[in-house]
Design brief:
Strand content: 25-35%
Radius of gyration: 19 Å
Number of strands: 10
Number of domains: 2
Structural class: alpha+beta
Length: 267
Amino acid sequence: MEFDDVVEKVVEIIRRAETELSEDVVKSIRYAYKNEENEIARMNLRNIIENFEYARDRGIPICQDTGSPTFFVEIGRELCLDFNLRSAIVEGVNRATREIPLRPNSVHPITREVLGNFPEINFDVVEGDELKIAVIMKGAGSENCSRLRMMNPSDVDRIKLFVVDVVRESMGKPCPPIFVGLGIGSTFDGCARLAKKALLRDVTIMNEFEIDILDAINKLGIGAMGMGGRFTALAVLSEVEPCHTASLPVAVNVQCWANRKAFAILR
């Protein structure tokens, strides 16, 4: 494996994420359209379907906000790399920005100077000899609706209420129907990473805890694009890690209907 191999693969998965929704996301959106009874919501869902089909067929970004890239990289401990992996990923993002093209969304937080697209990269060492790269593209409309709370250890039963309150406050701003990533445990910063990583899961597979929260969210009636309807969210996906005995970190990462994600494996 060479530096350029990683660069090419990063460009490939960003292009795929930006122009073609994964099968599980498409399936969930089509399910909502088929089962929605509110006519305005059905119109909005039909527009969403036409949007991602148009982007897929023409190879263009699904949304004008092409988002900020977050990578989750698993490095097999038997893999030997003689180049800077972070630099290869950054170069791939720079190339993707020029070639797809992507809107240069990264700016200095104080001066607001445009800096291109600056990726957030999370590395983990695992068993094996493969390099696994996952990318999720997050637009600001949904990212800005995300919240984190350091809850009391006795507040486990209030996690659902916190998540529902976050969605209620967001209303139509994150372009619903949304996907909700939920990080529970770890630390202040760790639970936020868990919440975003959860959005990489297959959105059609949820446990009872997640389905219970999803049902509560959909009872809000916010609906597609915030105009009412049965489907405010399409999935709640959680990741859990141990936390300190005196804390309960909980993060809610809101994702718009365009849950843009893609994966690659290099050997």
